[in-house]
Every structure is written in C-alpha cells, then in structure tokens.
Amino acid sequence: MSGNISQDFSHQSLEQGGQVASQLPLVEELTPYPDVEQIFLEFAGDDSLLLLESARQTSSQGQFSYLMCNPLTRIQIQNTHYSADPFESFRDVYTKIFVESIPGLPPFQGGFAGLLSYELGQSWENFARASHDEFQLPDLAVGFYDWVIAWDHNQHRAWLIVQGFDQSLQTQDINLAAERLKSLKTRIDSSNFNQQDQLAALSQSAFLHANKLSLDQLSPVYPVERNEEILSNFSKTQFLNQIEKIIEYIYAGDIFQANFSQRLLSRSTGHPAELYLNLRSKNAAPFAGYFGWDDWAVVSASPERFLNVSHQEVETRPIKGTRRRKFMPEADLLTRDELRESEKDHAENVMIVDLLRNDLSRVCKPGSIRVPHLCEVETYETVQHLVSEVRGQLKPGKTVWDLLAASFPGGSITGAPKVRSMEIIAELEPTVRGPYCGSLFYAGLNGEFDSNILIRTFTVRNGWIQFPVGGGIIAQSHPRLEYEETLHKAAGMITALQK
C-alpha cells in the first residue's frame, strides 16, 4: 500500500493564492482569510468534527489550527485491555502510506486524528479501572481525515488541503480529490456565516435529543462548596481524606507524587459547539480543541502539549505548578515570582521532567534527550503555570505509535513512579477519567504528529457536562490548599458554562 508523492512546491508558488497544483494533494488557499469560529460553526453539525485550535495565538505555541470532519473511516475501541495494541488496525496503513509535506503549509495535511482517553493506558500498564463508568466514553476514537482546513495564524493565511484517497485507503485519485475540493469550497463560499442562524440550526441537532441520565443514575455526587449548581464525585471532606491517603502512600515509600482529581458535573442544555465558543472566548489556550463523535463531544481549552514529533524530533512540555491570576498587575507579578521560587512546585515539576525523560528514553536515541527549558512561568487568562520542555530524537525504525506506547498517558497527569501512581488513582478516584487526562492528536501522512493533554476540558454526554480538575500531590502538600487549587483551575471553565 502506498500513497502518491506530492510535488515539492516552493514558497513562491504558495504566495500566488488559489489552487497550488494539479498533483496530489490538491491545495487551495481560502481568501479572504477565514475566521476559525465561522468555519467551525459551519461544520459543527457534521460527522466526527475535529477542531484542533491554537485559540491563544499570542503564545509561541499558537501558530496553527486545523478543522476536519466526515472521515473516510472511523476506529473505536470501547474498553481496551492489558497487552492489547490499540493502534493495530491502522498502524500498518499509517506506516505504508507516506505523502511528503508541501513546504510553506501548516504541518498537518491530512491523516489519522482523534481521541485517546486516559484509560487507554491500560493497553500498556496493568492497572484497574475506577469503579464507576456511567457515561461509557470509548478509550479510543480515531478517524482517517482525507481533507483538512489549515490556518497559519502568524501569516494570517488558510488553506483547504485534499489528499484524494478512496474509501479503502489504498490509492489516491485526483478526480476524487477535485470533487471533494470543489464541494467543500462551494459550501464555504455559499455560507452566510451568521452566528445566530448557525447556532439556531445546531439547536435542532439530534445531539440534543440523545438519552439523558437522571441524577440517581450517576455515581454518588455532592454539591460543590460556594457553587451548589456544580456537583462533584467527592464531598470536600472525602477529597481531603483521599489526599491524606496519598500522602501516607508517599511516606510509606510507594510513590513520590500522584496527580489526584475530582470530577465536576453540570447539566447540559445547549449544543456543545456553543460551549466551545464560550470557553475559547473566556479561557483561550494554545492546545484547545473540539471533537464531536456520535452523541458525545470533548470541549477543551488545554494549555499543555503532550507530544510533538517533527522530522523524528520529539518534544513534550509538562505543566506542574499553578497559581491563580490576580486582578492587580503588581499582585500578579508577585504571584508569578512566588510560583517561580516555590520549592514545592519546582520539585514537583522536576520530578515529572525526570519521569518523561525516562519514558522518552525507551524510544529515543541514547544521548539525544535534553531539557532546553526547566520550570519557566507561562501566563494564561485565569492562572499561571510552571512549564518545562523535554526533547529527544526517535531511534531509527521507531514510530509515533511506539512513542505513545512508551509514554501514554502523560506523566504530568499521573505521578511518579508512573504505574504505582496510576494504581493509586484508580483506587482513590471513584469514577473513570475518560477523555480527561487523555489526548486529542493528529498523525499526518507526512510523519508529523502533535497532541495535547486534555486538562481544562469538558466532556458532554447524556445531558451532563463533566469537567474534572486536579493537581499533583507530594509529601509537602496541604490537603485544603490542594482542594482550593482544583477550584481555581475550574474557575475559567465554570465561567464558560454561563451563557
């Protein structure tokens, strides 16, 4: 199985706008420069819509956004099991199809993309699931996307890219590609891009008429302090007691750290696309995303990259350490300095950096792993984070699927040592995490790969919105402060729930 190799286009040819070439893939620049929100609403009702958006474009990480839907094929794994290869059904296809990048365009130009839920980690580590799973989200939901709309926010340019694969993914066909490109371009050109009309159309969506769970069908829930419309899978007392247990595990020598979370819940009344627009306007993030699949959707304002692979170079950017933003500029600067100088947060971050170095070393060349940035403060709308960067070079013969097997789920949302932390999380958290702490990703036919960590994330299904929040627990953690930190992280998300 092989894909046709695209022509090596120069940047000069791209500057002309319009269609770039007659060979595959077909590319057409969209002019005038389209608004991501308008395009998103135009396609929000389509099958398996995936938007990977750099909504916070002032960030150095916020250059590209991608939208795709109606995949040629879909793969779903409901519940994985230990020693399974969740990528088996498309690993060979991905390896055998290679389509060279068109220079000057954003790196993702079509391929596999979708969701990896936290519990997919059971494929590689033998740990139990949490006891309650009332929403039944799949462990893996992935599509093969033959076309993508790609934005370069630095250049203020966007392109429609169509690969032209047939349904079997065996060959590319220029006539298929031309037909798809024409249909998509016609749809974009004919849309009136009226937000009110677009949201009204979504209000008739079958998504809003899906089965809704009653309160007594949920695992036990408790009102959240100072916000009784929000429910949690813990009472405050229970959450504090579980943190005490984690600290006991640390002093017993089981672990150094565990990432512990509470799942917050709110009733869902509108279409999740509207929730995404609220979230992106109030809590913009460089690794935001929306994924609508059947009767559920993932809505994320993630600030955290999980893994990026470009030309076999691997990058991961763990976040550990958080402070709530202050309204006064002087106080905000003091908060930043406090975070930077915090021994607890620094130790927590370095611990995860060491874990990720170990994970990457399983698939990267010896001596290639390095830490260009350690414990640097990054500022977002509602919080400040301590962020590091770890890099390495993949060994010859190793693929992104080997990298995921070695490192999923991300160490920043598990703890250290990783496996024992995951066992303790499953023991002490009563509900499965599902998409939370998993990843939205793309794996391009040109070998490019990128993914986020699904924090600051809503999952919508059965009439409810889930949005877990958590933090790293170490020996020096104070249970009450850790509880308050989870609510600080939830603040921007709770605001987004208010229409």
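Second entry:
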Amino acid sequence: MVYMLKRPELVLPAGDLEKLKTAIIFGADAVYIGGKEFSLRAYAGNFSLEEMRKGLNFARLHGRKVYVTVNILAHNRDLTKMPSYLEKLEEMKVDGIIVSDPGVLRMANRYAPSIPKTISTQANVTNTETAFLYKELGAKRIVLARELTLEEIGEIKRDTGLEIEVFVHGAMCVAYSGRCLLSHYMTGRSANRGECAHPCRYRYVLEEEKRPGQYFPIEEDERGSYILNSKDLCLIEYIPRLIDIGVDAFKVEGRMKSPLYIASVASVYRQAIEEYIATGEAYKEEELARWLKELSRTASRPFTNGFIEGESPFIQDINKTVLKDRVAFCGMVIDYDEKKQMVKVEQRANFGVGDEMEILLPAGDVYQFTLTELYDEEGQAIDRARHAKQKVFFKVDVPVPPYSILRKGENLSA
C-alpha cells in the first residue's frame, strides 16, 4: 500500500555554526538561528552576518533551510538598526524570518518583502481569529502556543490553511508561551528580550510576614502541583496524530543546548517521522521505548506531554528529579582514516583509556566500545584527553563520519 501522508519539516535549533551543521547532518530539514541582535536567546552563541552566510551555504549544500529569529518584543530604540538588518537578510535570501512583534512583522514586510514570515510562539497564538489576523498581515506560517490541545491545533490548521508549526520537544516555561516576568523582576534580565536567568529552576520557600526568619518548604502532595520547574516537553508518541491533522513542521527547543542534545533529538524525531510516513501504522512499543530511552539520555528533566491532551496536573517537576543513564558530551568527530581505522576527535569533556564510550552516528546508530588507547596530535600515547578542544586520536573498527558525537555515561569515571 502507498501512503500519501505529507512529510512535515523537522526544525532544529542552532545556537552557533557547529550546532547548525550537527542538526543538518543528523536529520533536520531546517534550522532556526539568531543573529547578534533582535533574537530571543541573548546567551546563545548566535551568528554574525558572515557566520550566517556560511550556515546558509552549508544548509543549501545539503538541501536544507535556515530560518532567522527576529523575535524580540521591540522598543523604539531597537527599530533604528532593524531596517538595515532586515535588508541584509533579504539580500542573503534566508528561507524565513521568525517574528513575534506585529511592528517587527510590518517592518519585515517592508524591508525583506520576499522572505516568508513565521509568527513566533512568543506571539501566543491560541485561536483561529488571531491566526487569520496574522495571515492578513502577511504571515505564511505560525508557531502555535504550546498551550493547545491536539484538537485545537487541528482546527486552526483546517480553518486557516496556514502552515502550522508545533513544538514537540524541549524545555517548557512556567509562563504562558515563555512570557515570564520573574527573571526581570529578580535579576534585571528580561526573558522577553532573550536574557532569561531561569528563576523558575531555583529552590523556593515560603515566609509568613509575621514570622520573619521562619521558612516553610514548598512541597506537593497528591492533590496539587505548583507553578515552578516545568518538566520537559516530549511528543514523540504523538508524531503520527500530528501528521494526520496536517501539522507542517515539528519544532525542537534548545538553541543553548549542546551538539549532543541536537544530534540525539534530531536523529530520533527523524526516525519517527520517516517510520510513520513509510508505514502509516502506529509505532511498535519496543520502538517507542527505544526512542524514549535515547531522548531521556540528553534530557535535563522528566518528560511531559504538556497540554496536547488538555490540562494536566503533572507538568511540574517539583522534586527536581535526578535522571538516570544520562550521557555527557565528550567530543566531536572531525575525521576518520579508513586505512588506519583511526578517528580524530575534538575534546569537549574529560575522557580517557578504560572508559566505556559511545559514538552516536548520524543515522541514529550507537556504537559502544571500551577505549583502550589514545594519542595526541604528535602521535604520543596519552591516558586522558584533559584539555578543552584538544585534538586526539583512537582506533575504531567501523567508519565514523564527521560530526558524529563521542559520549559517555555521566556516572562513569571522569
């Protein structure tokens, strides 16, 4: 039987050029990046215009797309430089511009008229009328708010005919689609301008005004949950249903996450999309379990399905759960010599002889081995790769392509 399901885009975050390349090699159809200005991730590496051009060239070489975030909630002082920046994006012919501010959308239509416009999740689109408004203002795609059910997503797609993008994986915010005031109030760093200090992850106690110095821990019982420390979103099991209702793009959060996270998540969701497109059948239990195990190895908190099935009392991780079987990013593969069966790696974390290691390959396969020998760039045997971005070599008896990820369990020896 031939299935005529539409293949949605898999859109991965890229905080810098290395992460952009990793995302594309591991299966992303598109990446979203930020420039040095006007982007809601002030502490990601972000891209200079020259780096942006390099990223575009790499993406086009592989037939992939690059979307640029211009998604700040702008003040008047931000508007002075914005026309020239938008004109440069137009000149480079980026594949899309992501905005949240209607005024920025208006300027993007004026100064980058040929570039498709996407409305950011920061715009909090939760209904058909709002989606129609942005369509009338020139938007081609909308990244819906995370607070929608599967039924609501389907209704907006069906009624508007717009391209619909949905977050399927990554960190959730305690505020409505990331519109949080805690960070600015407590630290002076505005979440709405890309500088979030993540105060929702802090540990809190209560203090009653007539009992100064007496602190009461915030706890939870079976009857209720609290607003802080959301679990991580994971909708891997909902991929078939999201494809069925016509979602055009699946988005992953994490421009500040490591290449390990990018590679792992991209490869799993790529496999899940292709499996359903090829068969049209529900995932096998063992298949879903394998994907969830891989995703959990790079997660920072337990998973939740968010609001996809409606309101849930189980979105917060109030106990700050310590996850098992996590892996650490130890290095990025640079090259492989087939004759010598030697792999060249750029170190990212301490590892050495005797460690149980893994290499995550772009196709999603995981090669496990015990490291028995290690050499520096002069060919001298060493016991550990201790120095940041140190180039080291070791034997691997399977071909390992560039951008493969070297990792090890965090509970193993350092």
